[in-house]
Amino acid sequence: MSQDKSLPDLAAVRKEIDAIDQQLQLLINQRAACAQKVAQVKIAEEGENAFFYRPEREAQVLRNIMERNQGPLSNEEIARLFREIMSACLALERPVKVAYLGPEGTFTQQATIKHFGHSAVCVPMAAIDEVFREVEAGSADYGVVPIENSTEGVISHTLDSFMDSGLKISGEVVLRIHQHLLVGENTRPEKISTIYSHASSLAQCRKWLDAHYPGIERVPMPSNAEAARKVKGEWHSAAIAGDMAAELYNLKRLAENIEDTPDNSTRFLIIGRQTVPASGDDKTSLMVSMRNQPGALHQILEPFNRHNIDMTRIESRPSRSGAWNYVFFIDFSGHVDDARVQPVLKEIGERAADMKVLGSYPRGVL
Ligand SMILES: O=C(O)C(=O)C[C@]1(C(=O)O)C=C[C@@H](O)C=C1
């Protein structure tokens, strides 16, 4: 019994919670049973190799949840809970196997869980092209690779992998990147002589390091998770890495959120073998090869402008097929099936030496 008469009665509120939990449990299992019925339809229509994961439907479900949310839980929090419910429902239909750029503890693993939830089977790969190969070979259903960082720019390795791959982009996920200075339990801050991290993480924290650890050696590592693993047993070094690595290796945080730009984020792509129908709010990624002639770039950009299509990114990479030819990677708002997108693709296709649609996919929701 509460002392203060204006406070709710604790035992009574807990009883209310128990009753709600009972209903929630029933409803969640009813929802899961519906997912099993959906699986039956998919198998009947498309066979055992049907695509059980439906990115467009998941994006719609999550958007609806956020739109109708009245609180007190925030839109992000409620969507995260439903993300996990859908993840469990999908696993009941058919567990999905997702290859990601490892090792365990990387931001890519964090992005994979953010996108697919905890019920997906996540497998770390040693390199970006291994993620591509694993999905191409059918050993994994989907792959997750980083594509661009807001402070560091594009990850060219991922772009280059698309040149030799027939895989499609089926989604994107954006992760806020928070970097921490991590040490093992026996490390004394004043004894630190080396700081390990991935080169891009060192670059993202350069100003902070200049101010707090001037003159201390900075050693690039293949990943920040590996940097975290290395400092676990060293008493004179520190690592820069994120939450996942800190938890995985049980490291102490000497300083948190040390990235130089507070809105530091990385965008990851989901790659697979699936063409995704329109979700209502989509993006498309294109790969366009152009001969190196005057006005080549203008020829590609002009149709987007004339048809009023919002181009969200353009990157160029030297083509591997011949000297001085360029490949442009273009992202724009819209889906290949949209009536206003089709004339743009037709015109660019006529002007380019080669054009490949890498995929139309829902804009990242979470
Ligand atoms: O609607 C479907 O196709 C389902 O399989 C159901 C469901 C869900 O739980 O809502 C589960 C997995 C799919 O990726 C999308 C949605």
Number of domains: 4
Radius of gyration: 24 Å
What's the CATH H-level homologous superfamily of the largest domain?
Periplasmic binding protein-like II
Low-pLDDT residue intervals, each spanning 5 or more residues: none
Bound ligands, each once: prephenic acid
Span between termini: 41 Å
- In the CATH hierarchy, the third-tier topology of the largest domain is known as D-Maltodextrin-Binding Protein, domain 2
Just name the CATH architecture of the largest domain.
Answer: 3-Layer(aba) Sandwich
The major beta sheet can be summarized as:
6 strands, mixed
Q: Give me the count of strands.
A: 15
**Strand percent estimate:** 25-35%
What's the tally of helices? 12
Which CATH class of the largest domain applies here? Alpha Beta
What structural class should be given to the helix and strand makeup?
alpha/beta
Pathway: Amino-acid biosynthesis; L-phenylalanine biosynthesis; phenylpyruvate from prephenate: step 1/1; Metabolic intermediate biosynthesis; prephenate biosynthesis; prephenate from chorismate: step 1/1
Pfam families: ACT, CM_2, PDT
Protein name: Bifunctional chorismate mutase/prephenate dehydratase
Domain ACT: 285-362
